[in-house]
Amino acid sequence: MFTAPPADASVPRLRHAVRDLLARESVPAGPGTLDGLLLIVSELVTNAVRHAAVLSPRITLEIAVSPRWVRIAVGDDHPYRPKALAADHGRTGGRGLLLVDAIAAEAGGHYDVDHTPGGGKIVWAALPLRRG
Fold it and tell me: Are 52 and 77 a contacting pair, CB within 8 Å?
């Protein structure tokens, strides 16, 4: 598990930490899966930084790897449960969860949001690993 302050600098720091962990552990994530996972990390951490910082002194990122799946989970102390918004071509931004959903679905995985016992939330995505 990684923890970080809800600050912009945490986004690349946590993305690099996940990339390095996956490489160090020789997780069999092909280039497409790895790119998708790293984009999911960026989107989920960015959302926590932008929307939960007021109530979260820290955000957490947990990565779990099984023989068939890898799961990325980002937690914060804000109680609001986010939902993927419909695409609005007149807006910039606001499409992070749509992107997470699309990446997960295309890979054969899924994402969801769970409440924590302390009143916060964990937004997670799980993607299957392809064995060569």
Answer: yes
Checking if the pLDDT of 101 tops 60, the result is yes
> Whose structure tokens read 């986010």?
82
Phi, psi of 95 (to 5 degrees): -115, 15
Fold of 2-128: Heat Shock Protein 90 (3.30.565)
For residue 103, CA distances in Å to 6, 79, 97, 115, 116 come to: 24, 25, 10, 22, 25
Give the span between the Cα atoms of 5 and 132, in whole angstroms. Answer: 37
pTM here is 0.89
Residue appearing with tokens 């490489």: 23
Cα separation of 77 and 11, whole Å?
A: 17
Please enumerate, as own/partner, the contacts of 34-37 that have beta carbons within 8 Å and a separation of 24 or more.
Answer: 36/103, 36/104, 36/106, 36/107, 36/127, 37/70, 37/72, 37/127
Give the three-state DSSP class for 26. Answer: coil
Q: Is the pLDDT of residue 92 over 90?
A: no
d(CA 110, CA 128): 9
Sign for the CA dihedral angle at 45, 48, 53, 58 comes to negative
